[in-house]
Amino acid sequence: MNINFTLFAQAMAFAIFIWFTVRFVWPPLLRAIEDRQKTIADGLAAGERGKHEMELASHRSADLVREAKQRAADIIAQAEKRATEIVDEAKAAARDEGDRILVGAKAEVEQEVFRARETLRQNVADLAVAGASKILRREVDAKAHADLLASIKAEL
Q: What is the pLDDT of residues 35-45, one digit of tens each?
């Protein structure tokens, strides 16, 4: 065997092996590596987008909480205003009811005073008749002197 031929055959086999590897093995390996790089890059980009969206969501939630607190404060203010209005309305209604009761009581007192005066007039007229009877020493007929008694009542 010739060493040159062996060396030449090994170089040829190596060249064929290199050509075969470059032609058939290397492209799928490069594609797999590129796909893996792309997947990793997409994952990192998605992570960054997620982080950015999380920050935006955090800001939106803070805005919503602030807005909800403002609405709650407005509702509380309206409720306090309405409570004040209800208290004022109740005070006004109570005042009106008190005035109505006072007017009714005054009218009742006036009626009682009128009845008392009438009773007093009647009693004074009866006493006047009784006194006049005693003075005159004779009986005065109240029915016969009704006109006289009515005028006395009116004067009293």
A: 999 999 999 99
| Number of Cα atoms under 13 Å in the Cβ half of residue 64 | 6
> Residues 19-34: pLDDT tens digits?
999 999 999 999 999 9
Whether 35 is covered by a domain: the verdict is no
Q: How many domains does the chain have?
A: 1
The verdict on residue 75 lying in a domain is: yes
Q: How far apart are CA 151 and CA 144, in angstroms?
A: 14
Q: Tell me what pLDDT residue 141 has.
A: 63
SS3 at position 16: helix
**Selection from 10, 14, 16 nearest residue 2 by Cα:** 10
Query: Could you tell me if residue 97 is inside a domain?
Result: yes
User: What is the per-residue DSSP string for 88-120?
Assistant: HHHHHHHHHHHHHHHHHHHHHHHHHHHHHHHHH
Q: Across residues 68-78, what is the average pLDDT?
A: 95
Q: Which domain holds residue 53?
A: 40-155
Residue 116 lies in a domain: yes
Residue with tokens 């919503």: 64
For residue 100, the model assigns a pLDDT of 92
